[in-house]
Amino acid sequence: MQDATIACAYAQLAATASGLGACWVGAFHEDEVREIVGAPAAWRPVAILPIGVPTEAAGVRERRDLGIWCMRNRCGGEAQ
After folding, report:
1. How far apart (Å, rounded) are the C-alpha atoms in residues 13 and 49?
2. pLDDT tens track for 4-57
3. Does the predicted TM-score (pTM) go above 0.85?
4. Please, where are the H alpha helices in the chain?
5. Distances (CA, A) of 15 to 21, 55, 74
6. At 79, phi and psi to the nearest 5?
7. CA 79, CA 75: separation in Å to the nearest integer?
8. What is the torsion angle, in degrees rounded to the nearest 10, for the CA atoms of residue 11, residue 16, residue 18 and residue 19?
């Protein structure tokens, strides 16, 4: 499972670097996906990664302040 998710994440990064759009899909009916792609019953689909040409270019987002994500010593602690 871990190897499959890592591979999917790298495929998404590669698609983006190539100017394509990709969207991770993790909620689906495994049996239906297995049937559609002709996978053996022993295989478990982990993710679907639709890749295509985006209809518009993604803009650059403003970064959030690191202090809202980093806590000192423990979760919910004082922000650094």
Report:
1. 11
2. 999 999 999 999 999 999 999 989 999 999 999 999 999 999 999 999 998 887
3. no
4. 2-17, 30-37
5. 6, 15, 36
6. -70, 145
7. 10
8. 150
